[in-house]
Amino acid sequence: MIDRATEKDPSPNGPRAPGTLGDAVVRRADGAWWSRIVERYDRFFFDTVPVDGAVYFRAFLALWTVCYFVPRLPHLRELYAETALRVPHPWLAAVGGLPALPVWGVWVVVLVLLSCVAAFGAGFHARKVQLPIIVILAYLLGYDVANVRGYGQLAFYQWLIIYCLPYDRLRADDGNVIVAPRWGLRLATLLFSSVYLFSVLAKTIGGESRCSVSCSKR
C-alpha cells in the first residue's frame, strides 16, 4: 500500500515537474528575442518619415545624370557610333552585342534621355518618364560598358532602386510635407553601403594598389 503521508503535495507550493520552469523561461526569452528582431526590422524599414529625402534624391540623381552626359556630347560618335574600341556588356556579348546606331540616331537617343531626365528631376510626370530613361540607359550601358565603370554602373542601379522611393510629391494639399514608409530609402542606402564595403574588401583581400604594382616593376 502507498503511504499517503509520503505523497507529494499537489499544491502550488509543492515541487514542480523537472524542466517546467526552465522551459517556460527559455520560451519567454526566445519570444522576447524574436519580438525585438521583428520590431527593429519594422522600425528600420517601415517607419514613416518625411519624403523630402526621396524628392531631393530624385533631383540630385537627375542632376548627376545630366552632368555625366553633357561633357560627352562632343564625343558621341566615338563613344556610341563606332565599334572599334567598344566593350559590350558580357550578357549581350554572348549574342553579338547591341547594334550600332548612326550618329544622328545616337543624338536623338541622348537628347530624348536628357529631356526625360530634366522632366524627372523637375517632378513632371516623373513615374512615366522613368521607364524610357531606364531603357535608354540600359542600351547605352549594354552597348559599351567601359563608359560607365565603377560609380557609373552604381548610378544605373540607382535608377532602378529609385522607383521604390515615394518621390512623387513633396507636400500635401494642406502644405505639410508628406510622410511615407522609408523602405525605399533604406534600399538605396544599403546599395551605397554595399558598394563601398565590397570596394574596401576588393582592395584589402587579394588586391594590389597602384603604388605596390609600380614599385614591384621597378
Structural class: mainly alpha
How many strands, which pairing sense, and closed or not: the largest β-sheet? 2 strands, antiparallel
Strand order of the largest sheet: 1-2
Portion in strands: under 5%
Report the C-alpha radius of gyration, rounded.
29 Å
What are the low-pLDDT stretches, counting only 5+ consecutive residues below 50?
Answer: 4-22, 209-218
Number of helices: 9
CA distance, first residue to last residue: 99 Å
The counted number of beta strands is: 2
Query: What value does the average pLDDT take?
Result: 74
Level of helix content? 55-70%
Shape: globular
The helix/strand series, from N terminus to C terminus, equals HEHHHHHHEHH
In short:
This protein has one domain. The protein is built from nine helices and two strands, in the order H-E-H-H-H-H-H-H-E-H-H. The protein has helices at 20-46, 52-69, 76-81, 90-93, 103-122, 126-143, 151-161, 183-204, 210-217; strands spanning 48-50, 179-181.
Would you mind describing this structure in some detail?
With 218 residues, this protein is mainly alpha-helical. It has one domain. 61% of the residues lie in helices and 3% in strands. Strands 1-2 form a two-stranded antiparallel sheet. α6 packs antiparallel against α7. The longest helix is centred in the first third of the chain and has 27 residues. The C terminus is likely disordered.
Which features would summarize this protein structure in a list?
single chain; 218 residues; mainly alpha; two-stranded antiparallel ribbon; 9 helices; 2 strands; 61% helix; globular
